[in-house]
Amino acid sequence: xxxxxxxxxxxxxxxxxxxxxxxxxxxxxxxxxxxxxxxxxxxxxxxxxxxxxxxxxxxxxxxxxxxxxxxxxxxxxxxxxxxxxxxxxxxxxxxxxxxxxxxxxxxxxxxxxxxxxxxxxxxxxxxxxxxxxxxxxxxxxxxxxxxxxxxxxxxxxxxxxxxxxxxxxxxxxxxxxxxxxxxxxxxxxxxxxxxxxxxxxxxxxxxxxxxxxxxxxxxxxxxxxxxxxxxxxxxxxxxxxxxxxxxxxxxxxxxxxxxxxxxxxxxxxxxxxxxxxxxxxxxxxxxxxxxxxxxxxxxxxxxxxxxxxxxxxxxxxxxxxxxxxxxxxxxxxxxxxxxxxxxxxxxxxxxxxxxxxxxxxxxxxxxxxxxxxxxxxxxxxxxxxx
Length: 386
Prior knowledge:
Elements: H1 3-15, H2 25-35, H3 54-83, H4 90-123, H5 130-140, H6 148-160, H7 176-187, E1 197-198, E2 207-208, H8 223-229, H9 234-239, H10 251-263, H11 269-289, H12 301-306, H13 310-317, H14 328-348, H15 356-380
Antiparallel strand pairs: 1-2
Helix pairs in contact: 3-4, 3-5, 3-10, 4-5, 4-6, 5-7, 6-7, 7-15, 10-13, 11-14, 14-15
């Protein structure tokens, strides 16, 4: 027998029923679930073909996030070396990036599980696996040099205010990871501003550098030329070797994760395709009416698509099955409006150069209304019972 499983089986009696540590049963169950995920298979009859459960759902999302996470760790170290004129190997850059990224992930999970255990104990139910994904999504939306106490504060707000006050996983109408990021964005704008701090090995805080969305071209110059001059040409934006939040820079890694989620039917393709279509259509409209070639109003659809955190948000945040609509038409509209609002916020309000976060949270609020209207219209078309 697996020694670890034998240990859990031997100590389970102390955490269940009338055991002396029964108050910690949710924490024990969550720890056991983490090590034995998914549940063991039956090797003898009878066999049951069950639908995908929450544990498998969350594990698939984590697998889809691995390319983004691995590249984000490497890019953090790569940008640190570039800022100081150093040429790190892949392993050196990855290890340096891990020094910044891993503590953020550990603090997120530690604080998040504390709140999950507390609320589960008070309510008398098991800890939900939802934090497994939230605890990885939240760090990927942050800059690499954010103070760890702000990480703890942000995930606390996201879990408690964004989810637990509404009853926990499955009852929240806002994405918890984005709720925590929004709290940090408005409470500590210096740490979360558009000028992302690049981690630097031999400095105290890092090196400040503008992100692509904060670039504005000089008068008479096109925005695309200014972006290329600043090192943000289209290929750099697509592959992701640029400054930015940990998980947002590589459009390629986000698309790989999205393809995995769509193929495994974990994420609904209507939200992702609808969001991309909404962004492209809105960008083309702005291109037609724009009179200033030096602003993001005149940037092409591919630049809007690859810059910032749009692909990360539409692939991993907007597809959250709890805060997104449940009807197919609602999903098309939901995704399309996220893409549309992202471009509008980017070009109309210079204070929020990255509009994806606000667009998704705004549409989360209206998600139940979309389902209500569509269901009402659908039932109205039915032939009444005679």
